[in-house]
């Protein structure tokens, strides 16, 4: 039921509703002044040093500091049940946080909003100057707000009509991401560990038995994670009641478990878990196939059908504008190896062209006069080889540093973006093939214009055999049926069957049989 009071963000200035995944912790990156020669003196017999707790016990009153296993500092007020990762040792930040807490509680009292006993208020001072907030309810395992929340950015990974049943998975993933941000304030349950272990075992089975598995991890990663989770399970049983100054022991293990729970529920949301159209394989799209544009139809033959291979690869790993990290890593490895090999071959061909042009019988013209057809073809081959080398080196450098999964996902927003990328990726291969064709043409022209009859005959036979062998290799691309006859024979048999089917069959008239016995 929609509340009859205005949204809290409208009444409290600079307060904004945020989700757990919108927290700026990993983008905050606070800078400190560089000290060239830091100087620190330690007094004699000093054996103890102040911790975060001892530093903040007096000035921060009810706020207790906790240190995230990754090292981030955050604070919890147990009396008011408020969490924040604002740096409260800064007096201005402390005043702002206390002011927002007072304003939020005053708003709830004004409109008689009952606070759930298990709910915790989470606040964050953002770079924009606003204060982000959400409530987390540990009993229902979800986060919520006192405003109408626009969750569009939260559900972009599933580009379908979102139902409340489907949204439940993403809300649970947000809840577990919150626990991943603040692991010291929520006890790790054995039930949660069991859920994670079952998911990892299921994922291992999926990876072992399916090529297009839907797991976000590969086999070695899953086995390592399962081993770590088993270790965490043993530690949690032994240290469940142990407490350190900045939180319970084993919070590092809890942080990892919560992170895996976030991944589990987010993957279920993205793959429409339990839905009629659930994605069962990583290559399964939830949307109709895109129609190819004329760009690919026109340029693919000019590129000697090199883009077709890259286009299929890109379609295979880019499903509904989502790229798996493992698939992206494998694609980068394959592309880098391909471009490195093409660079080597193009360099060899470039040297062959230079050597060919250095032959005295080839370069018979004056220094500034017209060139022969063989020389012109060799020039084209040399330039194409050089272009293949330069573009390959450029791509290897870009895809090792600049190009990311986000780039590929953005390209996948349209058919044009993916097709142009396939054309780009095939440029080194295409230029090398055209360079090879040009070099063959230069060599053939040189031989056929030599005037030597035996050479012309031998070259004619060799060229004919070469063309036939190339066509034989190209025919593999068109094989879509079981192999019983060579490709040309199959085409002839299919033509014969078509002709026979068009000839009307003669009607066979038979005399009626005598029915008497």
What key attributes describe this structure?
517 residues; alpha+beta; 3 domains; 7-stranded mixed β-sheet; two-stranded antiparallel sheet; 17 helices; 11 strands; 8% strand
Mean pLDDT: 85
Domains, number: 3
Q: Distance between the terminal alpha carbons, to the nearest Å? A: 87 Å
Element-level helix/strand string? HEHHEEEHEEEHHHEEHHHEEHHHHHHH
Ranges where pLDDT stays below 50 over 5 or more residues in a row are none
Helix content: 40-55%
Q: Return the structural class.
A: alpha+beta
How many helices does DSSP assign?
Answer: 17
Q: Looking at the structure, what is the overall shape?
A: elongated
Based on CA atoms alone, the radius of gyration comes out at 35 Å
Number of strands: 11
Query: Hey, roughly how much beta strand do the residues contain?
Result: 5-15%
Biggest sheet layout: 7 strands, mixed
Oligomer: single chain
Question: If you had to describe this structure to a student in words, what would you say it looks like?
Answer:
This protein has 517 residues and is α+β, with helices and mostly antiparallel strands. The chain has three domains: 1-29 and 55-149, no CATH class; 151-287, no CATH class; 294-474, no CATH class. Helix content is 53%, strand content 8%. The protein is built from 17 helices and eleven strands. Strands 1, 2, 3, 4, 5, 6 and 7 form a seven-stranded mixed beta sheet that branches. Strands 8-9 form a two-stranded antiparallel sheet. A hairpin with a 2-residue loop joins β8 and β9 (247-248). α9 (294-302) runs parallel beside α14, α10 (306-317) crosses α14 and α12 runs antiparallel to α15. The chain is elongated and about 105 Å long. The model has no long low-confidence stretch (mean pLDDT 85).
């Amino acid at each position: 039921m929609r509340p009859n009071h205005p949204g809290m963000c409208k009444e409290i200035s600079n307060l904004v509703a945020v989700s757990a995944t919108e927290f700026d912790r990993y983008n905050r990156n606070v800078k400190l002044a560089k000290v060239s020669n830091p100087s620190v003196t330690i007094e004699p017999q000093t054996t103890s040093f102040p911790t975060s707790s001892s530093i903040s016990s007096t000035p921060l009153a009810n706020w207790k500091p906790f240190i995230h296993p990754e090292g981030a500092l955050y604070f919890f007020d147990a009396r008011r049940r408020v969490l924040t990762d604002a740096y409260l040792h800064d007096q201005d930040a402390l005043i702002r946080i206390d002011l927002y807490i007072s304003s939020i509680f005053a708003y709830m009292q004004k409109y008689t909003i009952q606070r759930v006993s298990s709910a915790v208020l989470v606040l964050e001072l953002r770079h924009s100057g606003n204060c982000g907030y959400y409530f987390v309810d540990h009993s229902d395992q979800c986060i919520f707000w006192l405003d109408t929340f626009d969750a569009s950015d939260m559900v972009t990974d599933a580009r379908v009509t979102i139902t409340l049943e489907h949204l439940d998975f993403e809300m649970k993933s947000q809840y577990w991401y919150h626990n991943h941000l603040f692991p010291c304030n929520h006890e790790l349950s054995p039930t949660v560990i069991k859920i994670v272990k079952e998911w990892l075992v299921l994922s291992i089975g999926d990876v072992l038995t399916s090529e297009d598995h839907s797991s976000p991890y590969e086999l070695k990663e899953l086995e390592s994670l399962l081993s770590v989770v088993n270790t965490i399970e043993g530690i949690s049983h032994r240290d469940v009641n142990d407490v350190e100054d900045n939180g319970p022991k084993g919070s590092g293990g809890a942080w990892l478990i919560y992170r895996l729970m976030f991944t589990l529920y987010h993957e279920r949301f993205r793959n429409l878990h339990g839905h009629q159209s659930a994605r069962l394989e990583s290559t399964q799209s939830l949307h109709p196939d895109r129609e190819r544009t004329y760009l690919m139809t026109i340029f693919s033959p000019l590129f000697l059908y090199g883009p077709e291979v890259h286009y299929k690869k890109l379609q295979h790993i880019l499903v509904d504008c989502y790229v798996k990290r493992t698939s992206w890593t494998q694609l980068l490895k394959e592309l880098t190896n391909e471009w490195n090999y093409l660079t080597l071959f193009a360099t060899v061909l470039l040297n062959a062209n230079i050597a060919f042009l250095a032959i005295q019988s080839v370069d018979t013209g004056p220094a500034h006069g017209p060139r022969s057809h063989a020389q012109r073809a060799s020039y084209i081959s040399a330039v194409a080889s050089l272009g293949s080398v330069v573009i390959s080196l450029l791509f290897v450098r870009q895809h090792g540093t600049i190009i990311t999964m986000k780039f590929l996902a953005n390209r996948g927003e349209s058919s044009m973006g993916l097709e142009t990328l396939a054309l780009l990726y095939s440029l080194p291969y295409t230029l090398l093939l055209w360079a090879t064709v040009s070099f063959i043409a230069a060599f053939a022209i040189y031989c056929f214009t030599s005037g030597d009859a035996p050479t012309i005959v031998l070259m004619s036979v060799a060229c004919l055999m070469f063309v036939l062998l190339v066509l034989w290799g190209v025919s593999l691309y068109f094989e879509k049926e079981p192999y019983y006859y060579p490709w040309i024979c199959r085409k002839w048999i299919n033509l014969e069957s078509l002709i026979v089917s068009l000839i009307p069959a003669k009607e066979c008239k038979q005399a009626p049989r005598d029915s008497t016995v």
